[in-house]
Sequence to fold (657 residues):
Amino acid sequence: MMLFLMAAIPALCGVGCLFHSWKSAGKHGRSLVIYGWLLLLLSLLSWIQLAGAEYGVVFTLLFPAFLAWLMIVFQRRKGRRKTSAPRTVQPMPAPSWQGIGRNIARFLWLFTGLGVAMLLVSVALVMQFPFAANLNLASALLLFPLLWAASVCWFLSSRNPWKVSLLSTVAALVSSLWLLV
Amino acid sequence: MKYSRQLVKSSLSAHSWLGIGMAAVLYLIILSGTLVVFHTHIERWEQPLAAEFHEFDAADVETAFNEYLTTPDNLTPHMYLVFPSDAMPRIKFANEQQGEYRNADGSTGVPAYDDWAHQLSDLHYYLHLPTNIGIILVSAMGVILLALIISGLLAHPSIIKDAFAWRSGSERIHFTDLHNRLSVWGLPFHLMMAFTGAYFGLAGLIILIAAEAFHDGDRQAVTRQFFSGDPVVEAQPLQVNIQQPLQYLNANVPDGQLLFMTIHEADSEQRFQEYYVQQPGRLIYSENYRFDMQGNFLNRAGYSDGDLAKQIVYSIYRLHFGNFAGMGSKLLYFVMGLALTVVCVSGINIWLNRRKHEDLLNRLWVAVVWGAPLAITVSAISGVLARWPSVIPFWGVILAALVFALIVQSAARFRRQMQLAGILAVFVLLAGYAIQFGLAAAFGAGLLLTCGLLLWALVLGIFVIRSSGAGVGKTG
Fold:
């Protein structure tokens, strides 16, 4: 219990400092932010002392969220939530088959096309890493989802998604040539 | 943080497109994953009549397991003996199809019913699809979650300015602040779930490419770099000695938590036994000790001190499901999982609120959001009380809710009806459970689930009362 308090109290104080720096937004704001992060770092050491390095890091990452959510709930500006004026209930507009087709094609490309492309690129990239072969492959477990997700975001937010698709295809072709030929 | 206006706008558009397209599937995966954190408690609740204990007589259990093993109808390639642990203080004998609980002296106990628990975990792992397709689809949702995180961060230029803000105001502002605050502070958990969730299905694809590229298509050669290969044994008898391995483990791993033993290749003469022992303070699922059938030590898999890659890969399961530090980590994961569920729902609510009107989409979203917990409860009535399959009732309720969404006129009224149906289903389930197993069981082995269900009925009741004011709640 003592060790738990030694971990929880610095975390509470750390999030509290961040909260007060946010709330005051004044001249002490910056120093409070620094103290806040230092206290969270201190709580990491206590969590490690309490639960070991592996569990300790997980608790340090997850625990502050609870404290922050509690502070958000308690400082919530009291005021009656405005209820929206009743809206008109309308029938669904007739579906645009062209729009549905375009969205399905997009989904298929994001799921299969970009997925396969980033799989090839990730495996080709991690094999250039200077670690043991199995650690390189384990790195692909991080890199593949990250590259896939980043390419999905890039595709969807780009003004020219064709360019993104073309670049991904070229990268996949180069990777597959390197890997499989 | 300075973002260009164009970047914010395009990221928000990407975030919306992904969220709207994938929300229903993500919601089912996240909701079921949140419940699956308590998988062992659900299994105990599903069969509360099994004897619970921590101490047992190894000689008696060995004799009983050998009887079970040598019964021809029971034999499958893998045979399991689950030992009592803190999370599951029971002994279970199982093959690949079914299992049965045993008493501390090895005598026959009650059948091990776990259909509903498996239905829930199969929903989370595969969405009830064929496993090889389902696991890839669910893992791809891990990538979609990651893409939502990236686009959400880029679309949120005032992330620091709003770090603790929760404004009162319109329903849309309420949902926007709720969505953003839960997302930003839960970010480490969301990233952890996205990466570890993506692992389960995508690892197979990485292995496939690496095998083609470097091992002439031999996938086993790649897998062996992470998971220890089987030991080579001479012709082994079917009778198994478990006393000697237990003595070995007591002497050599006194702090470890013995989980279960598997007999591999049980239907061939190359059979051997493997003991899974959890290591204190470690995220690896277990360290595995292999013995021949006479109980002679063969080797250790080396997950606890093998190379780093092996340890990382073998840690992902417990990191994803949160079953590493007893009830504390489970509760932590449960609350974080609930928060992620709220993030998913509030994201769509923001979008629905932004529209000037209400239409079928509002009601379909209500059908998904409130239909899923109702479907889970109804599937429990079918699976736990009637011992019928629980997958068909689950999807049946979801389908019925979607059909009702086509008929009803108002989303708010439909939501209240779904919530009332949810309360009714919980009370039917609990009443049936108390009649079938008795109150002692409901508040014994099933205490956590029984209390959880009562709490859920209470929460639904509060929602019903709060939403009874006119004009409130056109969204999920």
In short: Chain A has a mean pLDDT of 91.
